[in-house]
Amino acid sequence: MLSARNQFPGIIKEIKLGNVMADVVVAVGDIEVVAAITKVSAERLGLKVGDAVTAIVKSTDVLIDK
User: Fold this and answer.
1) How many CB atoms lie within 10 A of CB 40?
2) What share of the chain is helix, strand, coil (3-state, %, to 5)?
3) Domain residues for 30?
């Protein structure tokens, strides 16, 4: 169990692999969440487009715009 309260189940829509980092685009309902993780982490998790994952947000700041 994680202490992070903001957990959003979604589906991987796209993975952009760089030399060191990977951008993982997760469709969460009608929005997309992009996670920047290390390439090694993406490979160790065996992430693939279409995988069901959970985007977990742990942050001290949440900004609101209107």
Assistant:
1) 11
2) 10, 50, 40
3) 9-54
